[in-house]
Amino acid sequence: MGGLDYAVIALVVLVFFTLFAGVKTVPQGYRYTIERFGRYIRTIDPGLNFIIPYFDRIGAKMNVMEQVLDVPTQEVITKDNASVSADAVAFYQVLNPAQAAYQVSNLENALLNLTMTNIRSVMGSMDLDELLSNRDTINDRLLRVVDEAANPWGIKITRVEIKDIAPPTDLVEAMARQMKAEREKRAQVLEAEGSRNAQILRAEGAKQSAILEAEGQREAAYREAEARERLAEAEAKATRVVSEAIAAGDVQAINYFVAQKYTEALASIGTANNQKIVLMPMEASSLIGSLGGIGAIAREVFGDGQAPGPSRPRQSTPRTGPASGPVENA
């Protein structure tokens, strides 16, 4: 094998290495910067890419996926001079690989210090109570401030979250006592409001009950008066009818009226609570005659198709007492 053969072999190997040096493969989620003689010229995307061998080279391999930055615990002095410990976590993403590679040195350390500084600034401008109760507000302010500061580096801060805020032990105990006192005060206020509402409801119930009772008594009195009025009208009408019958010369009407009152009086005497045995002399024929008068009036009112005949005179029975009934005329 002569010198020409060695030269050909060397040329083939050189061409092979040249082609190999000009082909670059970029994995998904990364971007590579290309430098020519040390100067940035372009950024290559994931996949198969070609560069000029011996003139171009890969400058920086930037991860463009969203990444997590753990912010360590640090001491923060609040606006009301309370010392608290706080730690956080930040999420960021490289949007411009060239700026992230050439605008700042040690990107992760720069973002970490930037976040820690702004945490102290934002939390130091707030009172302790506001700091503990407005964590979302703190996150929003941190996100806005840190994202604006990292924008020239081609970085997008997607989220900043405060993981924990730890006040000193004595301060936590004081806050617990304050919370307990506040809850006891709230419980007393609620109990007083409940008692007041219960008294108001009871008073309203008594008022409604009195109103309904008064309305019921008024309605009962009205109906009782109406019943008495109707009864009086009925008695007046009955008296008028009897009076007209008497004026017309109907003796049976007199007997009917007297027998009715006589029967009502006997019923009242018999049903009295203070009377057990009633001994009363009376003439039975008088009562029978009165009942006969009632029957005659009924026949005249309802009619039986025949005119009433003359009544026979009744023989009077011997009286058993001083009482005497009405005399019935033949």
Strands across the major sheet, in which order? Answer: 3-2-5
Classify the beta-strand content into a percent band.
15-25%
CATH topology name of one domain, in short, is: Tetrahydropterin Synthase, Chain A
Number of strands: 8
What is the arithmetic mean of pLDDT? 79
The CATH homologous superfamily of one domain is called: Band 7 domain
Second CATH tier, the architecture of one domain: 2-Layer Sandwich
CATH class of one domain: Alpha Beta
Instruction: Give the helix/strand class.
Output: alpha+beta
Task: Please bin the fraction of helical residues.
Answer: 55-70%
Instruction: For the record, give the distance between the C-alpha atoms at the N and C termini, rounded to a whole number.
Output: 187 Å
Order of helices and strands: HEEEEEEEHHHHEHHH
The radius of gyration computed from the alpha-carbon positions, rounded to a whole number of angstroms, is 61 Å
Largest beta-sheet details? 3 strands, antiparallel
Number of helices: 8
Poorly predicted runs: 304-330
| Basic shape | rod-shaped
